[in-house]
Amino acid sequence: MRPQAAVLSCAEKTGGPVGSGRGRKVVRVVVADDHAIFREGLRALFEGIPGLEWAGEAADGREAVRVAGEAAPDLVIMDVTMPGLNGVDATRQIRARRPKTRVLALSVHTERRFVLDMLRAGASGYVSKENAFEELSRAIEVVARGETYLSPGVSGPVVDELLNGIDRRAGPDRGFARLTSREREILQRLAEGLTTKEIAAELHISPKTVETHRQRMMKKLDAHGLAQLVRIAVREGLTPL
Hints:
Blueprint lengths: L6 E2 L18 E6 L3 H12 L4 E7 L2 H11 L3 E5 L7 H11 L4 E6 L4 H10 L3 E4 L3 H13 L3 E3 L1 H13 L7 H6 L3 H11 L4 H8 L3 H15 L4 H10 L6
Parallel strand pairs: 1-7, 2-3, 2-4, 4-5, 5-6, 6-7
Helix pairs in contact: 2-3, 8-10, 8-11, 9-10
């Protein structure tokens, strides 16, 4: 996989407010994050940035998919680890349903695997929460014009890997990469403590289907029980637990 365009860092000079200039439209933004205070902070920040319009918010990935479908935003700012449906799978669903809507990941996780998972899911950028309020204006500007933005702290090894098309995953990590979207959804819910019946009801499938997916996951991940599945889900950032 290759970046869509040049990767820029926050160290570069800002080229002006988002959406400024003749012929540029207002960028409509949805924010998905499970912390209400953080969403409120971003909303206050965006109100002071010309060219940005607050289009909605979501507290988890499933709500983000719904809000993005209803509000038709230009951009979704997506937290990576959220309950119910994580940011990676939410990004994948949004991009499949609304290809013109871009996604900018925002996370406390700066490890390579989180960044690559989001980019593979269709995100156009990745910003560390550590410098979110300083970087977001620039990141939104870059992503809105069709380029890719990575925070300086995550760009080095990630860009090398993307440019070279190398996948260094091995062992359990490679097994996790083989999980389907549905298997990832079920794994996240198992890790969050839901029973087979509860998962079946939430995903509108039968308990037998849930168990079939569970057995397939255990085989792919070489896992030997629920506790091991939970550890893998936590390690891979599927759940904020």
